[in-house]
Design a protein that fits this description.
Helix content is 40%, strand content 18%. It has a four-stranded antiparallel sheet, with helices on one face. The relative contact order is 0.14.
Length: 166
């Protein structure tokens, strides 16, 4: 078991039903006020505040983030680009380069046939082509691009259920 896996297992043991309900409520509305969370959980405001502080300190609650719809910004063409890095490309340097690219929404490092999967949001097909070219020029040996037809919303909440995963 890796150190990261061991830490995750320890975190899982410290979460009780109330913690899970609190995390689910934040997942649904990250801007929920402590008073509203307390009312919904039938707890005192101070009890919710203590739990939130503990969850942050333990690294369980890593943050609450705003989700911006790229289409509102005129970025209506989205794609996933699988990237195989050139042998002489440093993966950390490539990841730093991704942080400077306006069209990059996110990326995950992979183990397998490809090194990275990059999520792009672009204005149109010409912008997508320029973005993929920039990914290649930054040190990709090859790319495989798939257009996103639609995003499936509301996933991830099952992580916070009490049942064992299937």
């Amino acid at each position: 078991m890796t150190e990261r896996t061991a830490k995750a297992a320890r975190r899982a043991r410290v979460l009780d039903d109330i913690d899970l309900r609190l995390l689910r409520a934040l997942w649904m509305d990250g801007r929920a006020r402590v008073r509203v969370l307390a009312r919904d959980l039938a707890l005192a405001d101070s009890a919710v505040s203590v739990r939130l502080r503990r969850l942050r300190e333990q690294g369980v609650l890593a943050g609450v983030h705003a989700e911006v719809d790229p289409a509102v910004l005129g970025l209506t063409t989205q794609a996933l680009v699988m990237i195989r890095l050139s042998p002489n490309t440093d993966s950390r340097a490539y990841e730093e380069r991704l942080r400077t690219m306006r069209s990059v929404l996110g990326a995950v490092a992979l183990v397998g046939d490809f090194d990275l999967e990059v999520h792009l949001a672009c204005r149109d097909m010409a912008d997508l082509e320029r973005s993929v070219t920039a990914l290649r020029d930054a040190g990709a040996e090859s790319t495989h691009t798939q257009l996103i037809a639609r995003t499936v919303a509301g996933l991830g909440q099952a992580l916070l259920t009490e049942e064992e995963p299937a």
